[in-house]
Amino acid sequence: MEFLNAFVAFSNFVIVPAIAYGSQLALGALGVTLIYGILRFSNFAHGDTMAFGAMVTILVTWWFQSMGINLGPMPTALLALPFGIAGAALLVLATDRMVYRFYRAQKAAPVILVIVSMGVMFVMNGLVRFIIGPDGQQFADGERFIISARNFKTMTGLSEGLAFRTSQAITIVTAVIVVALLFWFLNKTRTGKSMRAFSDNEDLALLSGINPERVVAYTWIIVAALATIAGVLYGLDKGFKPFTYFQLLLPIFASAIVGGLGNPLGAIAGGFVIAFSEVTVTYAYKKVLIYLLPESLEPSTLVQLLSTDYKFAVSFAILIIVLLFKPTGLFKGNTA
Amino acid sequence: MSISMRNITLFLIVGALIFGSGFVQGWNTALLILNMGLISAIMALGVNLQWGFAGLFNIGVMGFVALGGLAAVLVSMPPTTEAWAVGGLRMGIALLTGVATIVGAGNLYRRMAPGNKRTLAMIVFLIGGFLLFRFLFDPAVLAIEKVNPAGTGYLGGLGLPVLLAWPVGGLFAAGAAWVIGKTALGLRSDYLAIATLGIAEIIIAIMKNEDWLTRGVKNVVGIPRPVPYEVDLQASEAFLNRAASFGFHDPVMASTLYVKLAYAGLFAVVLVILLWLAEKALNSPWGRMMRAIRDNEIAAEAMGKDVTARHLQIFILGSAICGIAGAMMTTMDSQLTLGTYQPLRFTFLIWVMVIVGGSGNNWGAVLGGFLIWFLWVEVEPMGAKLMELITAPLNDGYWLKDHLQNSVAHMRLLTMGLILILVLRFSPKGLIPEK
Amino acid sequence: MSNPFLIGENMTGGYGRGADILHDCTISVAKGEIAVIVGPNGAGKSTAMKAVFGMLNLHKGSVRLDGEDITKLAPQARVAKGMGFVPQTQNIFTSMTVEENLEMGAFIRTDDFSNTLSQVYDLFPILKEKRYQAAGELSGGQRQQVAVGRALMTKPKLLMLDEPTAGVSPIVMDELFDRIIEVARSGISILMVEQNARQALEIADKGYVLVQGRNRFTDSGKALLADPEVRKSFLGG
User: ipTM, 2 decimals?
Assistant: First the structure.
């Protein structure tokens, strides 16, 4: 019983949140890794693309809510998601047309594109703050819990509750569906294969008659979709705030690099590695330990390795360790 | 020829812009822009050293600036003797333990043969060290933070003259740069970028959370000044007479302007020295070698140049300059407010300065520093005016009008991004290109 | 040889704005024949082939395919016109399977290419065996087969090979040459740059010896092999 209680507490505060957070990071990192694989630069505007897509979704959600349209127990945001994706896709396609394409034609060095993406980041950041403001926004509605902690306790008779929030469930389910779709697209469709071919060997792809502008356009649309979905899921789970999305850039890049930049499978693995490390290192284990240790040994402190404010330090430390010992990432990434 | 007619004109234009804002918005505003412009120019000089000379992609400027701010606090604030008494010693031992753990683990890594045994030994050693560190550290923190939490709650500083903090700030930043450089400089440029971005976030996180050291988000205020206080000036007969002889009869105005001018003088001295040094360096064999490495790393390496060591050198120097600027800024503000340290403002804006001014050219970086800072300050009121004009046809109280007028503050990010994109596209060498 | 299928005539040019590498160089291939370009290192062999394929700035001369002037066309457009090109290095998609490589070769085709696919598998049986394996995991010779197979998937009328036997063992080289002859027999013209001059000239209908970007000797493969001067200078006696 005591052990079960400890396990439930651990699941409630570590496993479930980490899986949800890991899914969000994985989706974000997939976007970064696709851009890197196809367009060959690290896109610093990715966090703000997520914020933009999420913002459009939120605005449409509010509009739906004001018209009384909803999804019952599910958040209305899911209904608004396609609009957010469309908005983000239009934005990134326009950005590509107006900004990035010029440098592609010039075959500019990747670092120039990175600096350009910093400029785009500024603009998108300003745009989002201009439209929705810099403050936090709530847009989650519907049923809050699938299993609430109290229901769980009465169901199982344990003294620890396992709360399973709707946003967490939706995050995990959506992430699985999105990843499955993405891999189906990349591995089974002609366009998807042409994207992989382009990422693998650009010159040969050109020789094979693959149209680079088409590949790039598809990539941006997919990236916009991934970014928006990641942004909305994160927003549902933890609330929307433009600056938070900028800060997410660090764990997202860490995930993509740890997994191997340019490798979609690696991005997913990296996302979970980073998420689990962040959550396990910053969790206060007192709640788990009181069930496992005899009363005399009960911890007097929170038994927290690092304060939650240092979660960035965790993703950063993992990033550095991986870069030093395995520079191509856990899964072999594109190093060119 | 280092300064052509064109460049002089550019500097004159920026000078006229700042001067002009004095006429429109008052001299106090103009001097504020000038002073932050001087500091920005120094930061841009530091980033230009790394990017323009060596092609190093450092987007952790904010962290080095904050370390400079920390130096200002630690050097000039009076020590909290009580806090030292209750927790100082234990804290010192704790920190030494932490350092010893890291150094020890490094030694283990070097001494032992690779394999599972080494990994295990290192893990055990690190965990043991960490637990010991926390055992010493946590009570010390509690004890220190308990001492008059509303007023101090931290160890305080050394109570030395604040001007000393400027070189110390440079040293702090240099130390951090050494650690980062040792680990991350061999990496690809975008990895270095992520690494520096990360380290900056961590430095800020530490300074925000370790209240015993910095008071965190409770801010340190009242950092001693290197220049006289306004109230003292206003009480001084000699000063008032002198001000009057220059035509200033309002003592409050005269004293504020005097203080700002004094800062401007101090900052200008630092800028001139650093600019002179940077120019010397650029045109020395060392500078030429740096640029040779930047332009073709492989060829330079083949010629026997130790690229990584040179990069480390310049990374430390550039970061130190940012640290100095950070200490100067905190000195001018007389306070360390960690909540205001945001990467868009302290890292990316500096990058805009360097790129717009002209990467690889020290004068360009300085010009970019002044110009972009001027725009950063002025875009908001200008945007507000513009928005008033645009929304004039709309009815008062209409939601869109209110929204647009309230959002004007965010115009500056948009504008800076646009400026950066446009300059990169149409004039990638910047206003004063590299020679 | 009165009416060659492909001819690059009096080509003069170089890469980008660099110095000229080719000087008045002429290369041609007749229908269903094998033409081979040989010559010492730095003679501009690969450059001549790239010029024919449109990867060079030509400021003199022209390229005609089946009578049509294609001098101004981009390489991609030439692929659509029926030219297949196998680069010397990085000529496969290493992270994709053998079959996906071949599919990518057929990317511009909108018709059903399963026939061509089985033809390629007939030509290179080992590829059928390894069709689901990543191409990057194959041996050097097998990778070259993938590369040639990929180029064949567009059903080209002309196949251009840039040193197809570079870095493979002599046995594999012989086998590759056999396959190339087989391809030529099916009516596809072949233009090939080769380091192994002697073996290549043996299978060549026509040979070009280039020196410093100029035509030095042009004759049938046999005649070149028999020419004492060619033997002495370029075939090692």
Answer: 0.91
